[in-house]
Amino acid sequence: MIIEVKSVKLGPLKVESDRLITFPEGIPGFSNVKRYFLIENDKGHPFGWLQAVEDPELAFVV
User: Fold this and answer.
1) Buried (b) or exposed (e) across 16-44, using 16+ Cβ within 10 A?
2) pLDDT under 70 in the chain at which residues?
């Protein structure tokens, strides 16, 4: 199943549900958001994004 997120930082994104990362207790400070997915940088940079599914405004540089 494909999940669509309209990320505030990254624009519209589509991800397969099997790529979701679930934090059952949430991330400290964000306990109400439990599902994320990783967006890897394809330009060889060492950082990517951890985008929240439930909150399109929430994305972490990882």
Assistant:
1) eeeeeeeeeebeeeeeeebbbbebeeeee
2) none
